[in-house]
C-alpha cells in the first residue's frame, strides 16, 4: 500500500528512459509520452484520493525506520501538488508535438520532460531535507537540458546565467543542510522539527533558517532575487517556458511553505513578519516588470513574481485563512500560468512575433484564441467566479484578520495592475483594424487550443466548485499550522 | 582539526566567490568548482572528523564515526561533477555562438 507513494516518481523516470530509447521514432515517442503522462495523472489522482479520504501515507524505503532511512511522505499538501503537477504535465504533453520543431523533439525533449516531472514530484513527496536537495538537482538538471534545447544564440546566452545562479544557490543549499546537520544532528524533516522544538530556535538556527529561505527564494524568484528569472524563462520553446513557469518556481515556494510551517515556527516575529514585506515588494516589482515590456512572453514571465508574492503573503500572516489562501493560490497559479504561457505561445506563433507593437487586429482571424486569453486574464486577476478570486479572498481575509492593512492594499493594487498587464495583450494584440495585407493568414492552430481549454476548465472548476474544494484546502491549512501531526505521522511515537 | 578544516572551507568559498564574480567564463566555472569543494569539506566537518572508529552503532558503544556526512558528500560530489562538465560544454558553446566569453557583453538588451 505505502509503495503507492513512490509511483509518481518511478513512472516518469521509467517513461523518460523508455522514450529516450525510441528517440528516433517521433510518432512512437509522442504516443508513449501521452500515454505515460495520463497514466501518471491517474496514479496521482488515486494517491490524493486515498490520502484525502484516509490519512497521509509514509513510505520508509528499504524498511529502514523513520529517522534513519530515507522517507517519502504523501501528506495532503504534497499529494495535492503532485496531482496538480500531473494535470499541468498532461496539457504540456499534448501541446508539445505541435509546438516543438522536429529537431527539438529528436533531441530528447520527451525524456527530459519526464525527468523534470520526476524531480518535481520527488521534491514534493520527500520527507528528508537532503533528499529535497537531490530532487532539486534532478529537476534542475532536466531544466538545464530543456532550456538550451534548440541551441540558439540568445538561448545559450540566457541559459548560462540560469545554470550559474541555480548552481550557486544549490551550493548554498548544501551548506545550509550541513549547518542544520551540525546543529541538530539529523536531516529528516520531522526529526529536525522535533529537535528544534526541544532545543528552542536559537540565533544559530534562525540564521540557518534565513540561509535556507535565501536558497528557496532564489529558486522561487522572490524580491530581490528574481532578476535571473524573466529573461531566462522566455528564451526556450513555449512549452518549456510553461513547464518552468508552472513547476520550477512553485517547487521553491513549496519548500519555503514546508520548512517555515514545520520546522522554523518559533520566531514568527522575525521570519514571518519579514516574509510579509518581501511578499509586498515582490508583488510591486513583479507587476512593474510586467507593465514595463512589450514582449508578450515576458509579460507572463514577470507575472510569476507577484503570484509567488501572494503565496508568501499567506505564509507570512500564518493563520488559518492565510495558509488556506496560500495553498489554494499555489494550485490555482500552477494551472493558470501554464495556460497563459501556452496561450501567448499560440499568439506569438500566429502573429509571427512576440512584440506587441507589431501586432493588432488578431480578433478578426482568431476570435476563439482572443476570448481564451480574455478568460485567462480574468482568472489570473481574480474576477469572480474564477479561481483567482477565491484564492485572493482567502489570502486577504488572512491579512485583514491580522490587521496587516498596508499589504492588503498592495495586494489589491497589484491585482488590478496584473489584470491591466494581461489585458494589454488583449487590447494591443486583438483589437484594432483588420489587417488586409495577409500578414496573419489563417494558420492552423490544430492541437494547440485543446490543452489550453483543458487547463482553463480546471481553473474555472476550481473557482465555481470552490464549495467542494475549500473545505479540503482548509483541512490542509489546519494540518500545516500544527506541525505535531506531521511529526507524529512520520516518527510514530 | 575541525577548526583548520573550517578555515580551509572558508578560504575555498571566499576564492570561489571571488572567481564567480569575474567576467571570464573559465574563471566563473573554476569559481563554482572551488565553491562546491568548500561546501563539501564543510559537510564533512559537521560530522566531526577522524574519530578513528568504525561507523557501527551498537548499544553501549560510544565511540563511532558518523557515516552520514560521507554519504551526503558522495551524492553531492557526483552532482557537482555532472554540473561542472555540463557548465564547461555550455560555456564553450555560448562563447562560440556569441563570439565572446565576457559576461558583460552577454547582457541582452532586446526587451529594454
Automatic annotation (TrEMBL), chain A:
Similarity remark: Belongs to the CPA3 antiporters (TC 2.A.63) subunit D family.
Any GO molecular function: antiporter activity
GO biological process: ATP synthesis coupled electron transport
Residue ranges occupied by any NADH:quinone oxidoreductase/Mrp antiporter transmembrane domain in the UniProt entry: 127-417
Species classification: Bacteria, Bacillati, Bacillota, Bacilli, Bacillales
Protein name stated in the entry: Multisubunit sodium/proton antiporter, MrpD subunit
Keywords recorded for this protein, A-Z: Antiport, Cell membrane, Membrane, Transmembrane, Transmembrane helix, Transport
One Gene Ontology CC term in the entry: plasma membrane
Main location class: membrane
InterPro entries according to UniProt: CPA3_Na-H_Antiporter_D, NADH_UbQ_OxRdtase, ND/Mrp_TM
Membrane topology type: Multi-pass membrane protein
Transmembrane segments: 6-23, 35-52, 64-96, 108-126, 132-151, 163-184, 204-227, 239-263, 275-292, 299-318, 330-351, 363-383, 403-427, 448-470
The UniProt record lists the keyword Cell membrane: yes
UniProt subcellular location: Cell membrane; Membrane
Organism, as annotated: Ornithinibacillus halophilus
UniProtKB/TrEMBL annotation, chain B:
GO cellular component: plasma membrane
Pfam families: Oxidored_q2
Compartments where found: Cell membrane
Membrane topology (UniProt): Multi-pass membrane protein
Entries under InterPro entries matching the protein: CPA3_antiporter_subunitC (IPR050601), NUOK/Mnh_C1-like (IPR039428)
Regions crossing the membrane: 6-21, 28-47, 67-92
Superkingdom of the source species: Bacteria
Keywords: Cell membrane, Membrane, Transmembrane, Transmembrane helix
Classification via NCBIfam families: PRK08600.1 (NF006372), PRK09094.1 (NF006573)
Assigned protein family: Belongs to the CPA3 antiporters (TC 2.A.63) subunit C family.
Record protein name field: Multisubunit sodium/proton antiporter, MrpC subunit
Species assigned in the record: Ornithinibacillus halophilus
High-level lineage: Bacteria, Bacillati, Bacillota, Bacilli, Bacillales
Amino acid at each position: 500500500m505505502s509503495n503507492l507513494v513512490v509511483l509518481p516518481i518511478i513512472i516518469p523516470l521509467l517513461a523518460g528512459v523508455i522514450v529516450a530509447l525510441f528517440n528516433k521514432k517521433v510518432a512512437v515517442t509522442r504516443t508513449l509520452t501521452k500515454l505515460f503522462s495520463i497514466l501518471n495523472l491517474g496514479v496521482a489522482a488515486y494517491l490524493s484520493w486515498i490520502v484525502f479520504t484516509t490519512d497521509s501515507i509514509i513510505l520508509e524505503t528499504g524498511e529502514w525506520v523513520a529517522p534513519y532511512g530515507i522517507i517519502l511522505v504523501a501528506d495532503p499538501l504534497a499529494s495535492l501538488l503532485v496531482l496538480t503537477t500531473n494535470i499541468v504535465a498532461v496539457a504540456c504533453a499534448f501541446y508539445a508535438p505541435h509546438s516543438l520543431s522536429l529537431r527539438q523533439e529528436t533531441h530528447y525533449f520527451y525524456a527530459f520532460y519526464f525527468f523534470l516531472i520526476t524531480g518535481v514530484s520527488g521534491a514534493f513527496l520527500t520527507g528528508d531535507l537532503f533528499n529535497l536537495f537531490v530532487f532539486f538537482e534532478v529537476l534542475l538538471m532536466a531544466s538545464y537540458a530543456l532550456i538550451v534545447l534548440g541551441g540558439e544564440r540568445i538561448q545559450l546566452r540566457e541559459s548560462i546565467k540560469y545554470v550559474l545562479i541555480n548552481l550557486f544557490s544549490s551550493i548554498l543549499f548544501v551548506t545550509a543542510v550541513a549547518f542544520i546537520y551540525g546543529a541538530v544532528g539529523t536531516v529528516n524533516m520531522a526529526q529536525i522539527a522535533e529537535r528544534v522544538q526541544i532545543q528552542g530556535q536559537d540565533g544559530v538556527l534562525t540564521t540557518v533558517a534565513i540561509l535556507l529561505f535565501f536558497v528557496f527564494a532564489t529558486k522561487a524568484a522572490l524580491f530581490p532575487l528574481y532578476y535571473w528569472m524573466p529573461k531566462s524563462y522566455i528564451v526556450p520553446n513555449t512549452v518549456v517556458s510553461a513547464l518552468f513557469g508552472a513547476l520550477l518556481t512553485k517547487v521553491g515556494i513549496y519548500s519555503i511553505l514546508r520548512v517555515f510551517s514545520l520546522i522554523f515556527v518559533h520566531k514568527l516575529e522575525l521570519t514571518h513578519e519579514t516574509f510579509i514585506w518581501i511578499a509586498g515588494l515582490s508583488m510591486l516589482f513583479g507587476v512593474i516588470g510586467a507593465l514595463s515590456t512589450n514582449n508578450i512572453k515576458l509579460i507572463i514571465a514577470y507575472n510569476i513574481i507577484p503570484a509567488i508574492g501572494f503565496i508568501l503573503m499567506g505564509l507570512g500572516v500564518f493563520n488559518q485563512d492565510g495558509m488556506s489562501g496560500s495553498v489554494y493560490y499555489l494550485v490555482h497559479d500552477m494551472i493558470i500560468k501554464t495556460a497563459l504561457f501556452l496561450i501567448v505561445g499560440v499568439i506569438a506563433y500566429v502573429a509571427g512575433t512576440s512584440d506587441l507593437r507589431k501586432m493588432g487586429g488578431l480578433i478578426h482571424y482568431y476570435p476563439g484564441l482572443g476570448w481564451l486569453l480574455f478568460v485567462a486574464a480574468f482568472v489570473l486577476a481574480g474576477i469572480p467566479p474564477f479561481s483567482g478570486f477565491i484564492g485572493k479572498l482567502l489570502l486577504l481575509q488572512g491579512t485583514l484578520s491580522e490587521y496587516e492593512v498596508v499589504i492588503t492594499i498592495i495586494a489589491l493594487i497589484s491585482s488590478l495592475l496584473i489584470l491591466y498587464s494581461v489585458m494589454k495583450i488583449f487590447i494591443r494584440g486583438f483589437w484594432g483594424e483588420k489587417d488586409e495585407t495577409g500578414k496573419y493568414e489563417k494558420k492552423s492552430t490544430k492541437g494547440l487550443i485543446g490543452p489550453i481549454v483543458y487547463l482553463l476548465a480546471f481553473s474555472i472548476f476550481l473557482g465555481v466548485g470552490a464549495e467542494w474544494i475549500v473545505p479540503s484546502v482548509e483541512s490542509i491549512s489546519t494540518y500545516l499550522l500544527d506541525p505535531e501531526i506531521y511529526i507524529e505521522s512520520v516518527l510514530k511515537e | 582539526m575541525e577548526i583548520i578544516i573550517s578555515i580551509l572551507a572558508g578560504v575555498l568559498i571566499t576564492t570561489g566567490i571571488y572567481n564567480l564574480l569575474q567576467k571570464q567564463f573559465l574563471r566563473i566555472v573554476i569559481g563554482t568548482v572551488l565553491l562546491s569543494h568548500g561546501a563539501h569539506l564543510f559537510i564533512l566537518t559537521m560530522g566531526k572528523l577522524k574519530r578513528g572508529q568504525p561507523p557501527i552503532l551498537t548499544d553501549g558503544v560510544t565511540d563511532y564515526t558518523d557515516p552520514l556526512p560521507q554519504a551526503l558528500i558522495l551524492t553531492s560530489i557526483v552532482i557537482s561533477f555532472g554540473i561542472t562538465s555540463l557548465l564547461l560544454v555550455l560555456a564553450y558553446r555560448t562563447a562560440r555562438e556569441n563570439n565572446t566569453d565576457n559576461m558583460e557583453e552577454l547582457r541582452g538588451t532586446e526587451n529594454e
